[in-house]
Design goal:
Radius of gyration: 30 Å
Low-confidence stretches: 305-319
Distance between the termini: 36 Å
Number of strands: 12
Length: 706
């Protein structure tokens, strides 16, 4: 009896930091589906199981949407509270943030709407007054101390319990969705620590965002819930379809943009995105958005985000705290850097009305004849010019501190800081254009469309377009960016300027460098990610890339019927390859199939335990039929069931541009090279990436993983 006729636990699975075999995973799923369909005709129970199997994908999407939406709501509420805690505390209950504390107060004024007796600053609590230079110093010191405490807790938790919880997670998720295995990156501990430390990092005041980390959180939810359903737990390709949908859910709860989330997953992170995944992604994103709205974290029944997010490193504890201290010390004096980044963006997007008390809207009101919804261009007051100077300083500060901070190992994202930089630049330009139009409406550029007393320039629109342009330049997003911005602002009429900004920023950024921020991080981390957008235009052949090279030792192979168990184990021990071609014999080198190292190891260990007579001298057969053995010889070991009988092959003269296309479109991990049917060598995904790096004059040894 061949005990390997039954599937063994572990056979067909993958080791950490290896690439999955997409073709094999899809084939396994087709076989499973075919079996379920055939059995469904035999009994009512089997039919119900078939229906349950078909429905499980939608149920999983529902659970992911609910879980991610609930976590996002909790993160938003907690981060809002801790951010306000740096400024003071509510006497009615320390768990209330500033806005909720003053919500029901009857003692607020229109000008000072944020001040109420129930909310006390730290200066009022400690020294009994909120006025004077000493009170300012007390509030300043408490702001810095709270920021340092939050950053210290965040970096300590990440370092001690879940190092994978650092960063935004988007480069790693892109790599995982391409078929790479990083065990623990989407696990339970990563989810718990990322959720807690994201709140702390957002509240500490570092110049980084939470949108990327929310995508990581949603993918953790998807991966954990996949284990509830057998068809997703046991199939890596099916699980990656779920993770693509989970990425869409992350954007949906981060920006309140379910359609933009689906497009972001399709355009930016997904490697394999079939049509059914599109519909399921939309459903999951919709559920998540509805869940977030039900929680109502912003208190306005809206999904619109705009909340701050920050991060710091785990490997150098002091540097984290130094950056936090510098950020807090420099941010406090300027009200535009002291406020949360999402508050700042909301302020910059604002279209001023007569009811606005912000310094940005403190214009000189002359000859007001129109309604408050359509104010004519007005001259700027001293307060507006003061705000412009503060914004100019905030722009320089944000740019420098974001560059220094991004990459530190704490939950962090780059969406909101990038948007803030662009929004500040856009608002500055918008106000400048507005004042030019007011004082020089007879200039050629304004003549014909800007008459005196008209509302010609909207600075808030400039800020919105600037935010989109800056984010597009950093990430190289286009379609999904425009849709996300549209869903954020609700302004359908702004789609044309947003599209123009997105395309222009992409062209300009591509002229400077072809890589977006996520592709750059994938390359810096050495992940084996084959970028679909990168063109291969070199005229090399498969024989130029394959291994072994002329100076290398011969290719390690298995023979179909002439090796013993000891021979196979020695080959496995002495090499580090992920798999071995199976040939007829060393002399003929005619290809039979391909066997993975992990499957061979598990099968031999299991046979030694469960099969009588399997010893080191037992012959190993990869053939369909085992020839008769001498009575005195040990029992043979049949391993045909763990061999891939249809490995992908190319000839030695196949152009590499075709080989690269095959790897991209089929998700291959390796391809065998033959000449007239004889095995010559092997090309792995890592070989292709090293070759592409070499052709681009980059270090080929920067590709770290196989």
């Amino acid at each position: 009896m061949d005990l390997l006729d039954e599937p063994l636990p572990g056979v067909g699975t993958y080791e950490d930091f290896n690439t999955i075999d997409w073709v094999r995973e899809k084939s396994k799923d087709r076989d499973r589906h075919r079996e379920i369909t055939n059995k469904s005709k035999e009994s009512t129970w089997a039919l119900m199981k078939s229906v349950s199997d078909a429905f499980s994908g939608w149920l999983l999407m529902l659970l992911i949407g609910l879980m991610a939406g609930a976590l996002a709501g909790g993160i938003d509420i907690s981060a809002h509270w801790l951010t306000d805690l740096k400024g003071g505390v509510c006497l009615n209950g320390f768990w209330f943030n500033h806005e909720h504390c003053c919500w029901n107060s009857n003692e607020t004024t229109f000008v000072e709407r944020d001040k109420c007796p129930q909310w006390k600053s730290w200066a009022e609590l400690i020294i009994g007054t909120a006025e004077g230079s000493f009170a300012y110093i007390v509030n300043y010191v408490m702001y810095v101390c709270w920021a340092l405490l939050f950053a210290f807790l965040a970096v300590s938790l990440v370092r001690a319990f879940a190092p994978y919880a650092c960063g935004s997670g988007i480069p790693e998720i892109k790599t995982i969705l391409s078929g790479f295995i990083i065990r623990g990156y989407l696990g339970k501990w990563t989810l718990v620590i990322k959720t807690i430390t994201l709140v702390l990092a957002v509240s500490s005041g570092l110049s980084l965002g939470k949108e990327g980390p929310l995508i990581h959180v949603a993918c953790c939810c998807g991966n954990i819930l996949c284990h509830v359903f057998t068809k997703y737990r046991k199939n890596e390709a099916k699980r990656r379809e779920v993770l693509s949908a989970a990425a869409a859910v992350g954007v949906s709860v981060a920006f309140g943009a379910p359609i933009g989330g689906v497009l972001f997953s399709l355009e930016e992170v997904s490697y394999y995105f079939p049509l059914k995944t599109l519909w399921r992604s939309f459903f999951a994103a919709l559920v998540a958005a509805f869940t977030l709205r039900s929680i109502n974290p912003f208190g306005n029944s809206r999904l619109v985000l705009f909340y701050v997010e920050f991060h710091s490193p785990w490997h150098l504890l002091e540097l984290v705290l130094v950056v936090t201290a510098v950020t807090a010390v420099l941010a406090f004096p300027n009200e535009y850097t002291r406020m949360s980044t999402s508050e700042l963006i909301s302020e910059l997007f604002n279209d001023c009305t007569l009811l606005d008390s912000s310094k940005l809207c403190d214009y000189i009101n002359v000859n007001i004849t129109k309604s408050s919804n359509e104010l004519a261009d007005r001259p700027a007051s001293t307060n507006v010019y003061m705000a412009m100077w503060q914004l100019a300083l905030a722009l320089v500060f944000k740019m420098l501190i974001t560059v220094v901070t991004f990459g530190m190992k704490v939950p962090s994202g780059l969406f909101i800081p990038s948007m803030a930089v662009g929004a500040i630049a856009g608002r500055l330009l918008g106000v400048a254009m507005e004042q030019l139009a007011y004082y020089h409406h007879d200039w050629v550029i304004f003549r014909g469309w800007c008459s005196p007393g008209a509302d010609c320039i909207t600075p808030g629109l400039y800020a919105m377009v600037g935010a989109a342009a800056c984010l597009g330049g950093v990430t190289r997003m286009t379609v999904s960016l425009v849709v996300i911005m549209f869903e954020l602002t609700g302004g359908l009429e702004y789609i044309v300027p947003l599209m123009a900004a997105a395309m222009t920023s992409k062209w300009v950024a591509d002229a400077i460098g072809r890589e977006g921020i996520y592709e750059a991080h994938i390359r810096l981390n050495g992940y084996p990610f084959l970028e679909a957008k990168e063109e291969f235009s070199h005229k090399t052949l498969a024989m130029d890339v394959m291994r072994p090279r002329r100076s290398d030792p011969p290719l390690s192979v298995l023979t179909q019927d002439s090796m013993t168990v000891e021979d196979v184990e020695t080959l496995i021990t002495e090499t580090s390859y992920s798999g071995f071609p199976v040939v007829v014999s060393h002399e003929s080198q005619r290809l039979v199939g391909f066997a993975l190292r992990r499957d061979l190891t598990i099968s031999i260990e299991n046979a030694r335990r469960r099969q009588d007579g399997i010893v080191s001298t037992s012959r190993v057969f990869f053939t369909e039929y085992t020839p008769p053995q001498a009575p005195s010889s040990p029992a043979p070991l049949k391993l045909r069931s763990v061999m891939d009988l249809s490995p992908f092959t190319v000839t030695d003269h196949t152009p590499m541009e075709i080989v690269v296309d095959i790897f991209r479109k089929l998700g291959l991990r390796q391809c065998l090279v033959t000449h007239n049917g004889r095995l010559l060598g092997i090309i792995t995904k890592k070989d292709i990436l090293k070759h592409m790096a070499q052709m681009a004059n980059r270090d080929p040894d920067s590709i770290l993983f196989n």
